[in-house]
Structure formats: C-alpha cells, structure tokens
Amino acid sequence: MEEFSTIASLRARLAKERATGRTIGLVATMGSLHAGHLSLVDAARQSSDCVILSAFVNPLQFGPHEDFARYPRDPVRDRDLAAARGVDVLFTPSAAEMYGAGSDVRVVAGEVGSRLEGAVRPGHFDGVLTVVAKLFNIIAPDIAFFGQKDIQQVILVRRMIRELDFAVRLTVVPIQREPDGLALSSRNTYLSPTERASALALSRALRAVAAEWRDGETDAGVLRARMEEILHAEPGVVVDYVVIVEPERLAPVTRAVAGIIVAVAALVGRTRLIDNVILGEAYA
C-alpha cells in the first residue's frame, strides 16, 4: 500500500493507473476504520483494479457544537487495517491541503439536504457534498463505494453525481452490524456498556417493522407507531425522528412498498445514532 498526503502526488500516482486502463475504486472515509468501512473496501476490491481509501476528518460537515475535536482518530490503526484489507492507495490529506486559505466555494445540498439529518445539523450535507465533489475531482474514480447506513448521504451523493454530471458509478453496500444487531459506526466508541445495550433498541425496532411489513402490514402510520413504541420503551433512548420515506426525495409515504426507507435517529446518552432498513431488501 502506498500513502499520499498531497493532491499533486496522488494525481501523479493515479496517472499511471489510467495510462494502463485500470479501473479505480474510491472508498471515502473519515478514518477510525471499522468492519463497515472494510466491507466497502471488499466491494471495491471485487470491482476495481486499484482501490483508493481516503481518510480525512472533514471539518465542513461538523456544526459549531458537534464533535469534530473529539471525533475518534487512530491513523496508525487505520493504515494497518487498510493495508491488510488490500487497499492500494491511502489518501490522508490535511485540512489545509483540502481547503486552502480563503476557500469558500461549497456544494449546496438543497431541499433534500435540509430534511432529517440536515434539519438537525444545518449545513452538514453541504460539507459532505463539497468534500465528496473534491475527492471525485481529485481522484476521478470509476466507481465510488458508500454504505447504506448513511442513507441520506447516499441519496444526496447519487443526486449530485446525476445533476453535476460526474463520470462515476455509485455502489451502495449494505449495513454491517455487530452480532447483536447494532449498526457499525465510529461513534459507537462513545457508548458506555449501559448505553450500548440501550442502543440495540434502534435495530430491534427496525427489525420488528421489517417483519411486520413482510407479514403484510403496509400502513406507514401503523409501522411507524410500532417503531416508536419499541424505542420509547427503552429509557436510555431519546428519539429524534422515525420516518418512512421514498428513496428519491425522502418524502413521507402513507403506504409502505418495496424500496421504501424506514429510518431512525436517536440520542443514546450524548451519542447520536442513526440506522435504517430498506423494505424488501435483506436485513443483515
């Protein structure tokens, strides 16, 4: 595995890949790698000749009262995990390298970016799309691999690719979970043992709704009420939202059909967690 921290050196390295017609796959992360990230690397390894993993804690997607300073960072462990999993190129730029002095051009996420996570974290998705657009321009990947857990991010990146005409194909990789159902997240490290047990209510509620839908219940109001019942029964969980929405603009639906997204966000202690399931798809 080779590591680059400057845009110029990375571009020079990738020019060699393009000269031989090799397919480039990108896995964009904020580091603190876990099995969910590594599943993206596995998918990239299967579909790409050259796998690039970026590890960059993007300051633009953190609000003024969010956890940028305490966001988990372990670059040595990240290097070891990436190399062992078959990453060819690791890109670890600094904030100064990604955003030079006076940088103020941003990609605006629009109406879809102001819903759900965007309503709680104003400007978050502008920061996400800006850094993803920069990575697409710097790396020019053939395929980009994103995880389903951040479903709103996936939808917005897909829209950006389409509307800004990026020549990249998006591959969405299913959510990776612990054996007890907890969706893998870098923020899980913030949870105490008691909080981690409480956090299982999110996956438990999603699993119950998916089962009821498979058994024939399609009324979105009934399904949402069932989720809320399970979540409110767990004293350590403070629900932010429970939604059942369509996958293009995240608009609420009254009837749940295959492809509809059921998503939840909640505070467990001081840690904000998100999870989702797509009806009709396997729940891992």
Write a concise synopsis of the structure shown.
With 284 residues, the protein is of the alpha/beta class. It has ten helices and nine strands.
How would you characterize this protein structure?
This protein is an alpha/beta fold and 284 residues long. The protein has 2 domains: 172 residues, HUPs (Rossmann fold); 90 residues, Pantoate-beta-alanine ligase, C-terminal domain (Pantoate--beta-alanine Ligase, Chain: A,domain 2, 2-Layer Sandwich). The chain has 10 helices and 9 strands. The strands form 2 sheets. A 6-stranded parallel β-sheet has the order 1-4-3-2-5-6, with helices on both faces. The radius of gyration is 19 Å and the shape is globular. The chain starts with a strand and ends in a 6-residue tail after the last strand. The mean pLDDT is 95.
Assign the CATH topology of the largest domain.
Rossmann fold
What's the CATH class of the largest domain, please? Alpha Beta
Helix count equals: 10
Structural class: alpha/beta
